[in-house]
Amino acid sequence: MSTLNPALFQEIADTIDTPTYIYDTNIFEERINQLQTALSENRNHICYALKANDCLALISLAAHSGIGADVVSAGELLKALRGGILPSDIVFSGAGKRREEIAMALEVGVRSLNIESKLELEIVTEEARAKRTVARIGVRLNPDVSVETHEYIATGAGEAKFGVTSTEAYELLLRASNDPNLDPVSLSFHIGSQIFDPEPVFVAAKRAAEVWRAAKVAGIELEDFDVGGGLGVPYMGENEPDLTAYSTPL
């Protein structure tokens, strides 16, 4: 709840015109600090999803706080860089990346390009070979986990368009490990947004861990276990998500 005087809002509207968006940067930084504290006992790399809000001032605050970014387009990648986030701290996710977006990600050297299909892996391979570089790739697993949230922001169920099955994920990682222009570094999943109950996240993580272990047996040493899913915002008076529960090791 904002502590600003309503009269100030009217003054801003009269001066700047509407629509005008006002963000409480103290709350934004407080949320980051809370998550960093909750995860402090575990090795972690927090990435702010620009799809939540790509206001450049907030991105700059995220960079200043030492966290990375998760982007899904060339525009978001450019904003993340402009906001001061290092390429090595940026994960490029999202289905349907254009070839030129993949090329841009390779040029700047992002932390990982999250692959969502065999075709996308082929395109990344072609671009990496053309640029004579090595693409750091992640594979997005569809863990086939449903969550209690709005159907339009649920992304981890089996019928969702995002990610690949466990078998496909393993095969893509294996294929990438045998290509000199690819470096498999990550396994990711994202089950949706507005999540208050951590249990579905744990279920998805356990399924992803099975793929991770299979890859390790095959000699593939991954770096990042990319846990995706938006913690719930209590718009309707819900209880705040328990960050301690989310950070408890499996």
Please describe what this structure looks like.
The protein is globular, with a radius of gyration of 19 Å. 32% of the residues are buried. A 7-stranded parallel β-sheet has the order 1-2-3-4-5-6-7, with helices on one face. The protein has 250 residues and is an alpha/beta fold. It contains 9 helices and 7 strands. The two termini are 35 Å apart. Helices cover 40% and strands 14% of the residues. Helix 5 (99-108) crosses helix 6 (118-130) and helix 7 packs parallel to helix 8.
In short:
By secondary structure, this protein is of the alpha/beta class.
Work out the strand percent.
Answer: 5-15%
> Helix proportion of residues, in percent?
40-55%
Task: Report the mean per-residue pLDDT as an integer.
Answer: 89
| Low-pLDDT residue spans | 149-158
Q: Which of globular, elongated, flat, extended, rod-shaped describes the shape?
A: globular
Structural class: alpha/beta
Q: In angstroms, what separates the terminal alpha carbons?
A: 35 Å
